[in-house]
Every structure is written in C-alpha cells, then in structure tokens.
Design goal:
1012 residues; mainly beta; 9-stranded antiparallel β-sheet; 37% strand
C-alpha cells in the first residue's frame, strides 16, 4: 500500500465545521503554486463532483479546534478520479497543509438530514492565478499522512481500495479466491479489495492466525473474491484430521441459520463477477468436537456450483484456558453475538402470563379462556362469542354475547350452482395448551371451502380459507363479522378516526391509506378483523396482492343494521376456472385481552425524561421524591445514545440501573427494531447477509454496475453533491442504504441509523440482546416507541421476560398516525392491537390533541381500557381533568410537561387502588352531569367513599348540575362536592349537592363526595 502514514486527528474537529471527515496532511514550501498528488483511493462514486478545502499551519497560524487557522484561497483541482487526486494550490507560508477532500454541511431536520458536499465548481481561484498556473514551475508537496476526524470515521485500513492494476495482479485471473480475515477488520467493500492486503505476503494470505478463549464463540471472516459469476457458494469446515465439523459446532452465518419462527434454513448464495462476498463464520469452541486443545487448526473449503476448483482458508488458533463470560458476548469486539442471529430463545408452547391454557369443551366446538367463550360454527369460525367482562374491564358473574349472529364466509356465484351446499367435516386439534386448531370443509355455491382457524389463549384467531372452484364461473366472497348492537359501542379502523360507530364507512385498497383492519366493540367485549395477504406479513403496507384486493375490486366495510354492526371483507367478482384455487387469509382478535391490572396502574408511576440534545441522565432523586416507581430511559443521551443498540454504553447504564434499584425503583429501556445505529459492531456482518437485515436501496444494482465497470459512468442524480442521510452512511455504505433516525450525541457526534427489514434474523439477535440486558444490566422491561415486529415476536419478548424470574414490563408508545399522511392514516391502537395482549401500559400520546377530540375517541384510541390496559397522556402535557376521566395522567419528566405527581398524591390519599372505576360509558356510574358536554367517572370504594372526575368538552365556560344515585351509593342524607387542593390542577372548593358548578372550557373538577 502507499508509503504514507494513516491515523486519526489528535484533536477531532467539529462535525458541523464544514470540513468533512477526511483530510491529507502535506508539507509544502511557501510558493505561489504547489502540487499535491493524493493517493486517496476514493470509495465515493463521483469524486470529480466534490471540491476541497485547504487550511494550513505555520509559525504565525496555529491550529484552532484541530484545524489550521490559515486559509489557502487559490485552489485548482487538476485531477479527481477514484484512485488519485491532484490538487494545485497557493501556499502562503512554509508549513503543514490540510487538504479536506470531502467537505460537507448538514441540511434538513436533525433527525432526517441530508449531507451536502462542497461542489467542485465552488472551489475558487483568481483568474490571474489560474491563468499563470499552466506556465509555472510547480514543486510537489510531500504527502505525509491521511487523517480522519475520528477513528469511527476512518477509511483505514479496509476502505482504501486497490487500483484496477493492483487487483488484477492480486487475483491473477483465478475464478475465485478465498481470503480469511480477522473479525477486527471487517470486509467493508462489496466490489473492491482492500489495498492493505497488498502488504501481506502471499504465503500468509490464506491463513488466519488468532487467539481465543476455551469456551469462546469465535468468529472470523472468509472473503470470497469472484473472478467469474459464482452460484450456490458453500463452505465446509474440517478439523486437522479432515473430519467435517457438525453444523452446530461450525457455522457460516451467510449460508445457514434459523429464522424468526425457529425454523432452520439454508441460503443459496451467489456472487457476480467482481463481487467481494464476506462470509462470516463461527466456531463454538466449547463443543466437544473442538474443546480440550491448546491449539486448533480448522480448514474452510469454499466451493461454488459452477466452479471447477475449490478454495481453502486455514484458521490457526491458539487456545487459552481462560473462560470468557457468556461465551464472549460481553465484548463487542469479539463479534460472538453473531451466534444470536440463529437463536431460538423465547420460542415455546408454555402459557404466557396472565394467560392460562384453553379449556376445550367436550362438545368439540367451544373454548374458554380469560373470561371469554367462543363456540365455532360449521366452517370453524366463531358462531358465538360471550364475554364475562363488565364496563370496568373486570370479570363479572354474567356474560354478554358480543356477536349478533355467527361469523360467516358468504360465497356467491353468478347463475345457478351445480353442487348442493353442504357441510363435509369439522375437526378439532388441540395442538398444545394455548392453541386449538379447527379444520373444516364445506361446499358453498360450487366452491369447496377448506378452512383452518388457529385459536390462541390470548384471543387471537388466524384463519385461512382455501377456495376451490368446482365449476367455471363468476364468483364473489364476503366475510361478515356481525357484532351485536348492544356491544358495538365504539369503532376504529379503515383509516377512520376512532370513536362512535359510523352508519357506514368503507375502505378500498389505496397505498396512501392503511385500512385493512378494523375493531368494533366496547369495554365488555369487541372483535378486530384484519385482512391479510396469503402469507404472514407485518407492517403498514396495503400494496400486497391478494384475493381481498382483487385488482382493486375488493374493499372492507363497516355498516349499521337494525340489530348489528357488520364488519365485512368483500372481494368483488372473480372469474375462476374449474379446479382453480384461491386463498382468503385473515386474523381476528377478541377483546379485552385480560382484566385491567388497576392495582399496578395506581401504584406504578413512570418518570420518563427524553434524551435528545444533552446528556440527559434521569434524576433518580427527583423521581423518587415525587413518587415515581419506574424509570423509562428514552433513546438518546449518554446512557442510551445509539438507537436500538444499548450495548456500547452498557457499563454506564448498568451502574445507573443499580442505583435506581437501590432506591426501590425499576428501570425500563427504549429498545426495539425497525432501525439500527451505525455504531453497531456487527453492521458489516449484517450487511454481508445480502439484504436479509437491512432494507435494500433500490439503486444498489446501478451502483454495483458502476463500481464494477467504471466505463458505464451512467449518471445517478441521487449521487450528486446533496445526498440523503448522514455523512457516515454516505461515505461508508457507498453501495447503497436506506437511512432512518439520526441523533446528535451528547459529545457532538452523530448516530446515523439504517432502516431494517420487519422480519429477519435480526429479531433473534434483538431477543438475545433483550435477554442479555435483563441478565447483565438489570433492566426491568422495555419501552417500545412504535413496534417493528408482529405478535409472534412479541410473544417471544414476553416469554423471555417471564423466564427471567423477575418482574419485567412492556410499555408501548405510539404517535397519532392520522396526523401525518405519510403514516397511512392508521389508528396505532388498531395497528398494534395484537401487541396489546402482552403489554403492561400504553402511551398513545404523540400528536394526540387532547383538546380537540371526543370522549369516545379518548376511550377507544387513547385509554386502552377496552383492551384490558391503562394509558397515559403526552401531547402538550395532556389534559389532567379529561385524563382522570380515564384514569390517566401525564408522565413525570417529559419535556412537554403535564400534571403527574400532583394527581398521584391524590390517588394515594384517597386510596384509589381499592376503588372500582365506573366510567361515563358504564350504565352503573352513579354520578352524571346534566349534559353530554361533561363526562364523569366515579371511583367508588366499598366503604362508600367516592372520588369523582368530571371534565368538560364544552367550548365555553359554563355551569352544570350534577346528579348522584344516592340509593346506589347508600347515601341517606345530603351530600356535597368537595374539591381538595391539587397543585397546578385546582384550588380547594366546596359545592352543594344542588349547586350549578362552574367549569371552565376544557377543564373540570376532581371531587370527593362528602356526606353531611
């Protein structure tokens, strides 16, 4: 490689200073013209489009913040290709000159920025200076070293590519090569070879020598360099005696694994000519096949289906007797956590609390679970759904029928049917304690229906109807879920804001709107219908093709009839040949999931400070003093600075968790998927998995073609000087990426996340990470800001927490997706309803305008009460009076403020945990106002004490009369409404039972009902 030094700046300059992340230091004499020939070996695609900046240091110009204070004004870029840069500049003094060759400024929002590089034509020089340059005798500057702003930004050693000539000499025209490489030097370039390999003698190039601990999960790489197109690349691992190592002992993560449902799989991995495929491999050194040795030699044989020869790479390990904790997982540099990708942690059939095994009826059709009973009809779909929940989401003695009639699939055919409708079979299979499968077969209108419905103990039903035409014809199908009129109190879904049930509303498949699911019901019971593609899918997209969509003919609808509210999935007409098969796949969820754990809600108080822009360490003393029992640590800030990757700061976080535990408080952490920090130690290994984990850039193929064949030089407008995403992503993930959340860290650096796919082995990694954080750091649960996975993973999350042996919570936060069109106008409570089954608390609050929505909206989309949960408020601090109608406060510590500990104090003084919550939606609520503009909830204790929360939805100040059911409350004499002093909420006041009580617009009162 080039004979210059490579290193990092001794004093990092500011990321936002406008100089970029890379420079060459050259030494130049004072001269009107100096030429610097820079061996910059660029990775960016169009270096000729990007300008340079030059600063210098001399006796009279010291450095300032790591940058020379002298400025070179006259600059001429003579050459700028991917291999070499030739820069002519004026040197006003003898000294060291800093040539910044990728200078940029950040544009746009801090959380989603663009990087604007200095255009080449912005590099200026005077006309006279440029004109004389062609006649000048120009001395050469001495190129001393390359420097990056920080070590994290550096291209050295693995991102300075070989030149075309160097690569040709290195590979020698072989069909492919296999080069082993240390885990400490990840292969970063997908189509170019690191020039640092030129410094390795050919005799040593095929052997990796390293040291490992006796029980380590040891990881290394094999770079496969394709000299021709390669198909179905394979790796076989053999010991020193030539014996093949078992799959569980040696693994290539790129070629084999276990998916997020626990199924083992292999990958047919190809490489195009010129590609560099990094195969990440691992050895379980504690396995009997490898253990008990002081040294170990493993041979990896690489083959490809169409190649005539194989390539071998040798791994020579010195084994120390030391035992490393957790097989090396505690040390990020070891990369041992790649074994997490193939983990089956959290997969099982055991019941997940609070759910218990399904009680399957002796009739073969009924099932009882969590206060609900479902009885199925001929197609295995619910014919009856009774719920023992009352209006407080507590179990009662009597049951309510939620369905008006059986759920049915209606098949219609244009013209007469040749076959007689009939039911053929209905079979029940009790798969395990928490899953019962109903399989049925029937004929309807010349359609043979084969139905399979999986009922789970949490109330989820997965249904798949296989439809086979017995005769050619025009068919149409309607799935109808009829909810009884008395149970259909609220609605949400179909891109309709939740609240009262509309007379009719329909959704047609539109990529701008997410409307393939809807929920109808009330606190006593409800049901969600979600139309699905043929395969399981998680996400907001409704672009998938299915019979439900049917080329745009399909729709989903809710409509009222005299005795029911109908949820309907409608396919529209489809022409089917005899024997043609189609599939209708859908989910249903019965609610509430479980009784509300009100005792937990009244006693568990969250302190939740954000972490953006500052160090932001939660103040444990303040939290404890004001009654908090749980610390929620948000993303950002010095204790959780890298999004969804808390492992870099785990030691600091562990110490803070320990301190919180010493005060008696528990600790939850922002930790999810959907995006992943660029500081992730495994980022290069994850990218080597070929689009499995990171969302693929749609332009990646064009980028690859340009790198492999520079003569193409096709213009890619998106690779102009303004590029989406932060500079680290643009400079290192050159072959393409999809940027996600960006965050400035407390030290001024930038965390640039990459978008990840919704269902991949990253979920296995994530789950092992959760288990590690619970065991090693001591966290007591997670805070999910949006959810990047479906209920299958949510169950694994909950099971990991359950198996930890300690109390762990799941807290779900959502923003109002009706606020921003790009989110598809989907109700988060509807979207994440399947996850609510395993949640402990909700924070449906960002963008929820508490002043502008109806009481019914509060109940349905914010409170969580119809689903067996309690919630809290966020936006603008919430509304303390309206919030208390639903048992909600704001969270203490959040930047938007709000009332929290003041009301917690009232809860404690009143003893609210021993009271029954009787909301305005409950006919048994003993207190009401004269008009619906005021809603009232009564918290009634067995001793007769009553706390009343009254809130106004009236647009103006006015007075209201309240009435009390004295007989229900056992009041014989008179009473009064006593408003105790609550700081920042209300002054002390007393009102007579027959008084008109004044309420300011949008406010209310918290009363104690006081007997006289």
């Amino acid at each position: 490689m080039d004979k210059i030094a490579y290193g990092n700046a001794s004093v990092p300059w500011d990321l936002k200073a406008g100089f970029g992340n890379h420079r060459f230091i050259v030494e130049a004499p004072r001269s009107t013209y100096v030429r610097a020939v820079l061996p910059w070996r660029r990775r960016d695609l169009y270096p000729e489009k990007i300008g340079v900046k030059i600063r210098y240091t001399s006796a009279d110009t010291p450095t300032e913040n790591g940058v020379g204070s002298g400025i070179s004004e006259n600059i001429l870029i003579e050459k700028a290709d991917r291999e070499t840069g030739v820069i002519v500049f004026e040197a006003p003094a003898d000294g060291l000159y800093e040539i910044y060759y990728m200078p940029f400024v950040l544009r746009g929002d801090w959380w989603s920025p663009s990087t604007e590089y200095l255009p080449a034509d912005a590099v200026k020089a005077s006309d006279d200076w440029k004109a004389a340059a062609s006649f000048a005798d120009i001395p050469d500057a001495a190129v001393l070293r390359y420097e990056s702003r920080t070590a994290f930004d550096s291209f050295y050693p693995m991102e300075f590519p070989m030149t075309a000539a160097e690569r040709a000499a290195f590979t020698g025209g072989s069909p492919f090569m296999a080069v082993p490489e240390s885990r400490l030097r990840p292969i970063r370039m997908q189509y170019e070879l690191p020039a640092v390999w030129l410094d390795t003698p050919a005799s040593s190039l095929r052997t990796l020598r390293d040291t490992a601990c006796a029980n380590e999960h040891y990881v290394f790489q094999i770079a496969v360099i394709a000299g021709t197109d390669l198909h179905d690349i394979r790796v076989a691992f053999r010991d020193a005696h030539g014996r093949t190592l078992p799959r569980g002992t040696a693994v290539c993560f790129n070629l084999q694994g276990r998916d997020a449902e626990g199924r083992e799989f292999t990958v047919c991995r190809d490489a195009v000519k010129g590609q560099v495929l990094s195969l990440w491999c691992g050895l379980r050194l504690e396995d009997p096949a490898l253990s008990g040795k002081e040294s170990l030699r493993i041979t990896a044989e690489v083959t490809a289906k169409d190649a005539d020869a194989s390539e071998t790479a040798d791994i020579a390990l010195t084994i120390t007797p030391d035992l490393v904790p957790n097989n090396g997982d505690d040390d990020l540099w070891r990369m041992s956590r790649l074994f997490w990708l193939n983990a089956a942690i959290g997969i099982g059939d055991d019941p997940i609390a609070p759910y218990e095994p399904i009680e399957n009826g002796s009739d073969g059709r009924s099932m009882d679970f969590m206060g609900k009973r479902l009885t199925v009809g001929p197609l295995g779909l619910p014919a009856s759904f009774t719920s023992r929940y009352d209006h407080a989401a507590e179990l009662a003695d009597t049951a309510t029928e939620i369905l008006a009639s059986p759920v049915e699939l209606i098949a219609e055919k244009t013209g007469p049917a040749a076959e007689t409708d009939r039911d053929i079979s209905l079979r029940r299979q009790i798969r395990n304690a928490v899953t019962t499968v109903m399989e049925a077969e029937a004929v309807r209108c010349d359609i043979r229906i084969q139905s399979r419905a999986e009922y789970e103990a949490d109330g989820h039903i997965d249904c798949r109807m296989t439809l086979t035409a017995l005769a050619e014809g025009e068919y149409a199908f309607t799935l109808r879920v009829p909810v009884a009129e008395h149970a259909a109190e609220s609605f949400m879904g179909l891109s309709y804001e939740g609240g009262r049930v509309p007379a009719q509303w329909e959704y047609r498949w539109d990529p701008k709107y997410v409307g393939n699911h809807a929920w109808v019901g009330g606190v006593r019971g409800g049901i969600q219908l979600k139309l699905m593609p043929e395969e399981e899918f998680w996400g907001k997209s409704t672009c998938f093709e299915s019979l439900w969509k049917n080329g745009g003919k399909g729709k989903m609808r809710v409509r009222k009839t005299p005795d029911a509210v109908l949820l309907e999935g409608i396919t529209g007409s489809i022409r089917m040949r005899a024997g043609q098969t189609e599939v209708l796949h859908f989910h249903m969820i019965t609610t509430p999931f479980h009784p509300i754990d009100k005792d937990r809600h009244w006693h568990e108080h969250i302190y939740h400070t954000d972490g953006w822009g500052e160090e932001r360490v939660p103040d444990l003393d303040y939290a404890k003093k004001h009654g908090a029992t749980i610390i929620n640590l948000h993303q950002g800030g010095m204790l959780n600075e890298n999004i969804n990757y808390p492992f870099r700061v785990a030691p600091k976080l562990k110490e803070h968790v320990r301190k919180a535990h010493e005060t008696g408080m528990r600790y939850k952490l922002y930790y999810t998927v959907r995006e992943l920090s660029d500081y992730c130690a495994e980022i290069w290994a994850f990218r080597s998995l070929g689009g499995e984990i990171y969302t693929e850039d749609s332009r990646a193929a064009a980028i690859a073609g340009l790198i492999l064949d520079p003569s193409q030089k096709a213009e890619l407008p998106a690779w102009d000087t303004v590029r989406r995403g932060g500079p680290w992503l643009n400079e290192h993930l050159t072959e393409g990426f999809v940027g996600a959340w960006h965050q400035f860290l407390f030290d001024g650096e930038q965390d640039c996340a990459v978008h990840t796919k919704p269902f991949s082995r990253l979920l296995n990694y994530y789950l092992c990470g959760l288990d590690w954080m619970i065991r090693e750091v001591g966290i007591d649960g997670v805070y999910l800001d949006g959810i990047g996975y479906d209920r299958r993973i949510m169950k694994r999350v909950r099971r990991i927490m359950q198996h930890s042996g300690k109390r762990c919570d799941i807290d779900i936060h959502c923003g109002n997706d009706h606020e921003m069109p790009c989110y598809g106008y989907v109700s988060p409570a509807n979207l994440y309803l399947e996850h609510f089954a395993y949640a402990d608390s909700l924070w449906n609050g960002e963008g929820y305008h508490y002043e502008d929505v109806s009481p019914e909206y509060y109940l349905t989309e914010i409170s969580g009460i119809p689903f067996g949960l309690m919630g809290e408020m966020l936006h603008g601090g919430g509304n303390p009076w309206r919030g208390m109608v639903y048992g909600m406060t704001a969270r203490m510590g959040w930047q938007q403020g709000g009332i929290s500990w003041q009301i917690w104090k009232l809860w404690e003084e009143f003893g609210i945990s021993s009271a029954k919550m009787l909301g305005w939606w409950d006919p048994a609520c003993p207190v009401s106002a004269e008009n619906d503009l005021v809603r009232v909830t009564a918290y009634v204790k067995e001793n007769g004490d009553v706390l009343i929360a009254a809130a106004s939805w009236c647009p103006a100040d006015r007075s209201f009369l309240f009435s009390v059911n004295k007989e229900q409350l056992g009041i014989e004499g008179d009473y009064e409404f006593y408003a105790p002093f609550v700081e920042d909420v209300q002054e002390e006041a007393t009102f007579a039972s027959d008084a008109l009580i004044p309420i300011a617009a949008g406010k209310g009162w918290l009363f104690i009902l006081r007997r006289k």
